[in-house]
Amino acid sequence: MLYNKYRCLTCQNRMNNQYKVHPTFTGYAVSKDGDVINKKTNRKMKCRTNKDGYLIVGLMKDKKQYIKLINRLVLETYNPIENQHLYHAHHENRIRNDNNLKNLKWELKGEHIIHHHKGVKRSDEFRKRISEANKIAGKNLHHKKANSGGMMVSEVY
Q: Is residue 127 assigned to a domain?
């Protein structure tokens, strides 16, 4: 890429780092550390924190703005999978603003819920929704719970 002589050195260095164009939002490039840059301006996009503590960024596509989670942008760019709507982007160290690729992995929604909500009582309707989501993804998840006699039994969600 040719750089305008008036463009700042910081912007030039930013483009020389490891950035990869996002497959859906082709006007933006994403780094393995979770930085997002606008390819037109070569500037880093400003991110903010949503109500749950995850970093988000506003991206434009076809004159429409989309608010996207940065952790999903990183995984979609560097580790794309089919049926992404069935998966959550999981932070291995549980630090929500650490969007380094080494810290992120795809996790089925049912697994993610079980992983983060151990010991939480679930309604039958909620268990049914988790089971249906896992069947669509082709997985059966087993969860052990104590029956009335105190014995541990395996239960499929």
A: no
- Six-digit token string for 21: 């164009």
Residue 55 lies in a domain: yes
Q: Is 46 left (phi over 0), alpha (psi -120 to 50) or beta?
A: beta
Residue 132 covered by a domain: no
Q: Is residue 133 part of a domain?
A: no
Pair of tokens at residue 60 = 């434009």
Q: Which pLDDT belongs to residue 120?
A: 61
Separation CA 21–CA 1 (nearest Å): 14
For strand 36-38 and strand 43-44, is the pairing parallel, antiparallel, or unpaired? antiparallel
Q: What is the pTM of this model?
A: 0.66
Q: What is the CATH number of the domain that holds 68?
A: 3.90.75.20
CB 155 within 8 A of CB 124: no
Q: How many domains does the chain have?
A: 1
Q: What is the pLDDT of residues 47-72, one digit of tens each?
A: 999 998 999 999 999 999 999 999 99
